[in-house]
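Bumping with the actual sequence this time:
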Amino acid sequence: MLEQRIQQHFIDSADLKYQAAQALGKPIADAVQAVLACVTSGGKILACGNGASAADAQQFATFCVAGFERERPELAAVALSANAALLTAAAGNGDLAQQFARQVRALGQAGDVLLALCLSGNDANVLAAVHSAHERDMTVIVASGRTGGVLATVLRETDVLICVPHDRAARVREVHALVLNCLCDGVDAQLFGEQETP
């Protein structure tokens, strides 16, 4: 019984990835182009998310700076969820919705990219960060689930929505991990050429 349940997780995950491949191909390619435009003009990527998405944002920033699957020059990226002092300062002020937005206002400049990871598309602190990014004339890439929530309604034409069409958080997170891998690989391939995979 337990083994069947485990096997079903693998099947469901594989099915969703297969179904999402066509639907997400273009938005991921658009996101790659947005990141390329940013880094080739000397900009940086600010990444944010809550909970497990915060860990994804940190991993993405790590891949940008330390490299993904090859040795290459560093790309400027910062995970806004990595500074515990800044995050808890917002709690002390009673304004948790501004914990990412403050950092975007402090660090973001025109031409930079905000990568916002939000399963529901409705997290107030991520929404505030998007508004701050727009005030700074930054491009926004949102990775969400379901229908994209409120975040899908505030994006501009130059922004990118990568919306995983599923309700289950675990499945959406699994596809988000693949999306971020595709984004890193796409940027590396465009900047430094194709690389043979072992």
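The tokens above came from a reply further down the thread. The longest strand covers residues 139-145.
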